[in-house]
Structures are given as C-alpha cells and as structure tokens.
C-alpha cells in the first residue's frame, strides 16, 4: 500500500494518537542530544535525555481534513544542557510510538537547551 488516500492517512494518525493514550500514564515526548538510534526498537541512551514533556490525556485536540492536532504539552524543566537533535514519543504504557528528528519532523524555537530552563510544545500537528 504505497499510495493511500488522505482519509486513510488521517485515520492512521488518529489510531496513532489513540495508541499514545493507551496505558495507565500519559504520553511523553523526551528530547535527546546526540545521534538518533537507527530505529525506535533501539534503546535510547538515557544519559543523553535533555527534557521530558507530558501530553494530556486524551491527547487529541482536533481532527481536520489535513491533520490531527494534539493538545499542548506541560512545561517541563530541562535536566541537562545540550542541543536537542531528536525526540522519542512514548505512549501511556511506556511503549515507543515514534522517533522524530528535530528540524525535519519537529521544530523548536531554540534547539540549544540549558539546564534549569523550561520547554513546552504549544502546537503538535500530525500531518500525512
């Protein structure tokens, strides 16, 4: 299925968001410095974690004809200074949902994070 309709892609993103809400906790996005693993199946180096953001549950804010929007994250304190190069999304059961490359897949106003600073995500739109 290399070419699917926009409706199918949106349905897949809605299911992705439902997967993120599964489990007893809320979904989380952890930003890391350094080299991104080759696959979400490869464990991340916890020593490279810069900040963990929590998404509200349910995380879906709006479904449109071109994207699924998630609610904004909490504001979290940066635990280590470094340049955010990638992020990993975990569902509420602690299972990896996706890896994102900073700049390509997810945009930050400033990728240079400083310990003690804060970060939050105001807008998360998943597009097919």
Indicate the percent of residues in helices: 10-25%
N- and C-termini, Cα separation: 14 Å
Going by helix content, strand content and strand pairing, the class is alpha+beta
- Average pLDDT number: 90
What report would you give on this structure?
- The model has no long low-confidence stretch (mean pLDDT 90).
- Helices cover 12% and strands 31% of the residues.
- The two termini are 14 Å apart.
- The relative contact order is 0.26.
- The strands form four sheets. The chain has a four-stranded antiparallel sheet, covered by helices on one side.
- It is an alpha+beta fold and 128 residues long.
Entry keywords:
128 residues; alpha+beta; 4-stranded antiparallel beta sheet; 3-stranded antiparallel beta sheet; 12% helix; globular
Can you give me a brief rundown of this structure?
With 128 residues, this protein is an alpha+beta fold.
Question: Topology, please?
Answer:
Layout: H1 6-21, E1 28-32, E2 49-54, E3 60-63, E4 68-70, E5 76-77, E6 82-83, E7 86-90, E8 96-101, E9 112-113, E10 118-119, E11 124-126
Antiparallel strand pairs: 1-2, 1-7, 3-4, 4-11, 5-10, 6-9, 7-8
């Amino acid at each position: 299925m290399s070419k699917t309709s926009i409706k199918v892609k949106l349905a897949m993103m809605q299911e992705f968001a439902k997967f993120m809400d599964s489990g007893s906790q809320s979904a989380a996005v952890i930003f890391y410095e350094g080299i991104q693993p080759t696959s979400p199946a490869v464990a991340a180096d916890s020593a490279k974690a810069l900040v963990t953001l929590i998404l509200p549950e349910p995380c879906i804010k709006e479904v449109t004809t071109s994207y699924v929007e998630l609610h904004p994250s909490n504001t979290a304190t940066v635990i280590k200074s470094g340049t955010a190069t990638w992020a990993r999304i975990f569902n509420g059961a602690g299972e990896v949902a996706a890896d994102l490359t900073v700049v390509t897949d997810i945009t930050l106003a400033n990728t240079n994070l400083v310990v003690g600073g804060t970060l939050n995500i105001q807008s998360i739109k998943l597009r097919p």
